[in-house]
Amino acid sequence: MRRCHPVPRVVLLTDARNDHRLEWAVSRMPRGSALVFRHYHLPIAARRARFEALRRLCARRGVLVITAGEARGWRADGHYGAPRDLGRGSGLRPRQRPGLHLATAHSLAEIGAAVRARACAILLSPVFPTRSHPGAPVLGPVRFLLLARRSPLPIIALGGMTKPRAARLPVWGWAAIDGLA
Question: Cβ(154)–Cβ(121) under 8 Å?
């Protein structure tokens, strides 16, 4: 079985909306938290430069840096994505790729896929309405907890999350885009 980094309890996902506040947000995150670097909106050279700047800051703060999407050869602590994507960009299947694997899931079937892909933890979403996907269906706290209890892996709540909302959900941790930046 592959060994994982310790699973963070707080995860910040990046995108174009929160880019201008990332340095501030990372400076306020507890040690052992994680930054999931997405920044799909940037051309590859600019994306790599932004990644490197944030990676250095995160290293000083004790925050893990997780990549999403194509990131071949980037010095990261792990990878984020749908279970089928966890090994992409490395030439390795997910179970062979070292580091922390954070899988996304929205259903019991996707939780099962994350388990089979040997993810370290699952970001289960969306718990609440989000700015990222306005009007999209949400799990709601009851359905979210029913799904979370079926998972053998740690569950990280995502979707409309804030610190007060996270405190009311008895799961491993929480993640946000706007709620942390």
Answer: yes
